Amino acid sequence: MYRITLYIHSKGAYSYRIQGLRKILEEIFERWMVEYRIFDGENLTSEEVENLRSKIRNIPPQVRGRIVTSRNYALPLSRSKQLNLLNTPIVLLERDSEPVDVYPHLLGARYRGVEDSLNNILRYGPDQYLEARGIIEDPLTRIISDCPEAIEEGLTLLGVNVRTPTGVIDVLLRDCSGRVVVVEVETTARDQSAAQVCRLAAGYSSSSCIPMENVRKMIVCLRYGGGLRETCRGSGVELYRLDFRKVYGPPLDE
User: Fold this and answer.
1) What's 138-241's CATH class?
2) Taking a C-beta distance cutoff of 8 angstroms, is the pair 82, 69 a contact?
3) End-to-end C-alpha distance for the chain, whole angstroms
4) Residue 138 scores a pLDDT above 70
5) Between 123 and 33, where is the model more confident?
6) pLDDT the model gives residue 165
7) Which end of the chain has fewer CB within 10 Å, C or N?
8) Across 25-34, 50-59, 163-172, least confident range
9) So where are the chain's domains?
10) Got the DSSP string for the chain?
11) Are 155 and 147 in contact (CB under 8 A)?
12) CA-based radius of gyration for the chain
């Protein structure tokens, strides 16, 4: 059984976001029956604070990545390793009372914010979300950002984890014609992935004053399910599946 706990601070710089976070948690409960709790950090005892810090640290680093605030990202722990609730809300995801993930965090080059992560849990459900993101998406992002021409000749990197009014773009590229390419990276892509990349492309187009006809939408994944091919065809999204081809090796029957 899953449970989501949202930790906030009544005097936090993000107070305007709290009502929206409550709404997402309510929708997750209604759709997936995931229990949720909300605590104000101002009312936590020293024992409860230390217990939360311990739960966060006990999540495997390959899952939760970096959790200590850096110059560019507000993360669950401050530079002095205290709870950073004045600067960011903290979401703890537990399964059978054991912590399995925390948001926000920085895994490799990929920043996972609170709203983005909760919205993904809402779309996929906790089981499918954890399976879909696995530990592979960040290496996929790294491959694409290091070698975009592996997808298409002439592609160049513009940025990774690019913020827009509608969310965070995994990888942003430019093609040889000067068009921007918004890339959504998924281990397992589904219909919702097409909706996500369309939303991100629209947000980037609006905030950057670039016409939508100059913005390509692309999904790169290891596998895909459902009617994603048809969904992509209908919404103008390009779908790429990463696979491996044997270049050399002994016959399998040897």
Assistant:
1) alpha beta
2) no
3) 47
4) no
5) 33
6) 87
7) C
8) 163-172
9) 2-133, 138-241
10) -EEEEEEE-TT-TTGGGHHHHHHHHHHHHHHH--EEEEEEGGG--HHHHHHHHHHHHHS-HHHH-B-B--SS---SB-TTSSB-TTT--EEEEEETTEEEEEESEEETTEEE-HHHHHHHHHHH-HHHHHHHHTTTHHHHHHHHHH-GGGTSTT-EEEEEEEEETTEEEEEEEE-TTS-EEEEEEEEEE-HHHHHHHHHHHHHHHHHHT--GGGEEEEEEEEEE-TTHHHHHHHHTEEEEE------S---TT-
11) no
12) 20
Q: How confident is the model over 119-136, as pLDDT tens digits?
A: 989 988 998 788 666 545
Q: Which two tokens stand for residue 220?
A: 């790169």
The 10s digit of each residue's pLDDT in 171-186 is 999 999 999 999 999 8
**Could you tell me the two tokens for 2?**
């899953």
CB count within 10 Å of CB 123 equals 18
pTM reported for the whole predicted model: 0.58
Residue type, 105: H
pLDDT in tens, 236-254: 999 999 888 888 888 766 5
Residue type, 76: P
Contact of 202 with 189, CB cutoff 8 Å: no
From 148, 140, 44, 51, select the one nearest 94 (Cα to Cα): 51
| Angle at alpha carbon of residue 250, lines to 247 and 252, rounded to 5° | 105
pLDDT of residue 205 exceeding 60: yes
